[in-house]
Write a structure and sequence with these properties.
It is a single chain. The protein is an alpha+beta fold. It folds into two domains: 245 residues, q2cbj1_9rhob like domain (Jelly Rolls, Sandwich), CATH 2.60.120; 33 residues, no CATH class. It contains seven helices and ten strands.
C-alpha cells in the first residue's frame, strides 16, 4: 500500500498540533495595497519569521494576471509542454521553466514592487532570482510530497534565510484545487521532512492576484486537485546573493534578451556583484561585458 501524506490535509483553522492557521485571521493579515508602507513590509517579514510564510493579498493587478496566463498558454501550446513522469513534479502538473527567456511579460515578475521589498527584507537587497517557473495543477493530480526548498543545502538547521520563495496565484487557490500545503513554523525545525512522513498541513487558500511568500526551510508541497478546473501558479523564487541559483540564469537567458532587462532585473539575474566583490570578472562587473561598454575595475576601488 502506498503512503499518501496528502490524504491528511487539515483545512485552515486549527490543526491537530494546535497551531492556528494565519490564513483564518483575515483581519490580522497585512495587505500590500500600500506596499510603500514600512509598517506593511515589516508586518509581512515578522509573519515569515514567526510562521514561515505570509500572504500578500491583492498584490497583482488583473491585467498582468491575464497577460501572464495568456503567455503561459501560448508557451504550453507552441512548445508542446507536457507533465513530467515523476511524483515530485507531478504526472498531471504542467511546469514551464526558465520563463525569463520565454516572454517579455515575465520580466515584470521578479521586480514587482508589491513583492520584492518583502523578499529583500528576508534576504537582503543583494538577493538573486533563483528560478521563475509556472505550476499548473490539473484535475486528478495527487498532492506533492512535502519538502523544504533549501533541503539540498548542507547547512545545520535551523539557519538564517538563504532562500525566499513566492507563489503567485494566477487563479484562485483553494484546498480542493491544489493550494500549496504548509506546515506553519516548520522552518524552525532542525531537519527537513522525511519522504512520506505523516505531517498535518494547512492549505494556503488565496484569491487570484494574491502572493504567498515563504521561508526556504518551510515544509510545504502542492496540494491535490479534486476539482474539474486547473489551478495555475507562478513560482518566483529568490536566493541569497552568494548562493548558486536553482536555474542558471546567465546561461539559460540569451544575452540579447538579458541586454533588454532593466538595471534591477539584471542584478537580480546575476549580472552584477554581491557586496562589490562576489561574481566579478577580472575585478570588473559582468554588466560591463553584457553591454560591451568596456571594462571598469570596481573590485577594491575605494568609493567605487
Amino acid at each position: 500500500m502506498t503512503w499518501r501524506p496528502w490524504e491528511r490535509v487539515a483545512r485552515p483553522g486549527r490543526d491537530e498540533a494546535g497551531v492556528t492557521s494565519a490564513l483564518t485571521r483575515t483581519a490580522a493579515r497585512p495587505t500590500l495595497s500600500g506596499m510603500s508602507s514600512e509598517v506593511n513590509i515589516e508586518s509581512h517579514v515578522a509573519r515569515i519569521e514567526r510562521d514561515g510564510y505570509t500572504i500578500i493579498e491583492g498584490a497583482i493587478d488583473d491585467a498582468l494576471l491575464s497577460s501572464l496566463r495568456d503567455d503561459l498558454e501560448r508557451i504550453e501550446r507552441d512548445e508542446g509542454v507536457r507533465p513530467a513522469e515523476n511524483i515530485f513534479e507531478g504526472t498531471r502538473t504542467v511546469r514551464i521553466y526558465n520563463l525569463l527567456a520565454r516572454g517579455k511579460v515575465f520580466e515584470s515578475v521578479p521586480v514587482h514592487d508589491s513583492v520584492l521589498p518583502v523578499v529583500e527584507r528576508v534576504l537582503d537587497r543583494g538577493c538573486l532570482v533563483s528560478s521563475v517557473s509556472s505550476i499548473a495543477i490539473d484535475p486528478g493530480e495527487a498532492a506533492q510530497p512535502l519538502h523544504a526548498d533549501d533541503q539540498v543545502i548542507p547547512l545545520p538547521r535551523p539557519h538564517v534565510p538563504i532562500v525566499c520563495n513566492t507563489m503567485w496565484a494566477v487563479t484562485d487557490f483553494t484546498a480542493e484545487n491544489g493550494a500549496t500545503r504548509l506546515v506553519p513554523g516548520s522552518h524552525r525545525r532542525d531537519r527537513a521532512p522525511e519522504f512520506g512522513e505523516p505531517v498535518e498541513t494547512i492549505a494556503a487558500e488565496m484569491r487570484r492576484g494574491s502572493v504567498l511568500v515563504f521561508h526556504g526551510s518551510l515544509w510545504h508541497g502542492g496540494g491535490a486537485n479534486t476539482t474539474a478546473e486547473r489551478r495555475v501558479g507562478l513560482a518566483m523564487n529568490y536566493c541569497a546573493g552568494w548562493m548558486r541559483q536553482q536555474e542558471n540564469q546567465q546561461l539559460g537567458i540569451p544575452l540579447d534578451v538579458a541586454r533588454g532587462f532593466g538595471p534591477r532585473l539584471r542584478k537580480l539575474c546575476g549580472f552584477g556583484l554581491y557586496r562589490a566583490l562576489i561574481g566579478h570578472i577580472d575585478r570588473c562587473s559582468p554588466v560591463d561585458l553584457l553591454d560591451d561598454a568596456g571594462r571598469r575595475v570596481v573590485v577594491g576601488v575605494i568609493g567605487g
